[in-house]
Amino acid sequence: MHNYIEKFATIQSKNKKKDENSDWTPTKYKETLNNYPNLQKMVEEPFLLQLILTVLPLLVKQYDVGSRISKAHVYEVFNDQWIDIHCQNIISKLAELRIQMNINKVKSTLKRYCIDLGFEMFYQGNLIAIESDLQYQNENEIDWGKLDLEIQY
User: Fold this and answer.
1) pLDDT 10s digits, 62-120
2) For residues 53 and 5, is the Cβ–Cβ distance under 8 A?
3) Helix (H) or strand (E) holding 142
4) Of the candidates 116, 74, 110, which has an alpha carbon nearest to the alpha carbon of residue 89?
5) Where do the structural domains in the chain lie, given as residue ranges?
6) Torsion of CA 60, 61, 63, 65, to 10 degrees
7) Which residue has the higher pLDDT, 152 or 96?
8) What is the sign of the dihedral through the CA atoms of 40, 42, 44 and 50?
9) Is there a contact between 38 and 28 (Cβ–Cβ < 8 Å)?
10) Which of 78, 124, 79, 83 is nearest to 105 (CA)?
């Protein structure tokens, strides 16, 4: 685990912009994990280790030292980060096409879609969900709020 944290921190420092969590060293990751007992147990699972390390700087901003952070909290912070990154990409692509859209509207729509998809998957008891063809409000706008989900069995 310690080797993975060192490799992760090295890769992150190379990929991040100077002002964007660039002060996160392997030692800082390890010390921070020690401040959150629940996270220490979770990082024993390889998948959760990467997920937690990815969002640890954000978790520290949202939760006080010693807080009981659950897997649900980790997933929520990761999902929010994922949505932020992809909304920025969407807005950039739209800007290239000279289309302006409110980023908060895109974020809330994507978040609602993720919640609906997760609920539908949980409700159906399956791990794979397939969406049907997109329904358009008009020729240029997708109605993301009205996506019908179909579960693949």
Assistant:
1) 999 988 999 999 999 999 999 999 999 999 998 898 888 888 998 998 889 888 888 88
2) yes
3) strand 141-142
4) 110
5) 2-70, 72-151
6) 50
7) 96
8) negative
9) no
10) 83
